[in-house]
Amino acid sequence: MKEEIQLKYTEQAIKRLEQLRKDHLRRVERLIRERKYVPGESLIEATASDVEQAARYIRVIHPKRSEIRRMILYTYIILGIAMVFTGLFYSQFREIFFGNPVQAMLVVVGATLVFASFILSRLLKIREERYRHESKNQVDEINR
């Protein structure tokens, strides 16, 4: 069996971990308050299941997963472009729409794949930028 490698934290790392713990606690508390708020009540009792449900909303972004998603999207883009060109240049343009409905379908499906992939890749990039911006703001709050 493999020997467990010890991990030693620097003073700054310990401070950052403590701040991260506090940040997660604030997020969990905010989610529980939002979920269980009743007008007129001054006390909200949090149960273990409340904490579990709140924890489901707090996500850790895995860079490898977003890279894989990006690669899949770009693969769809390439496949879509290939389908469009295959559909367009497989035969004469007129034959595509009048003589061969399969080619017309290739053009339409390919164009749809290209369009959807570009939109999804742009949304993914926006989400990642938003996450980076939120993380930067949290680090700025810590350093204050």
Question: How would you sum up this structure, described in words?
Answer:
The chain is mainly alpha-helical. The protein folds into 2 domains: 9-58, no CATH class; 60-144. The protein is 78% helix and 0% strand. The protein has 5 helices and no strands. Helix 1 crosses helix 2 (48-57).
Number of distinct helices: 5
Structural class: mainly alpha
Weakly predicted, low-confidence segments: none
DSSP E strands, number: 0
Net shape: elongated
Q: How do the SSEs run, as a string of H and E?
A: HHHHH
Strand residue content: under 5%
What's the overall average pLDDT, rounded? 79
Fraction of helical residues: over 70%
For the report, how would you describe the main beta sheet?
A: none
Which descriptors apply to this entry?
144 residues, mainly alpha, 2 domains
Give a topology summary:
Blueprint: H1 11-36, H2 48-57, H3 63-89, H4 93-99, H5 101-143
Helix pairs in contact: 1-2, 3-5, 4-5
Short description:
The chain is mostly helical and 144 residues long. The chain has helices spanning 11-36, 48-57, 63-89, 93-99, 101-143.
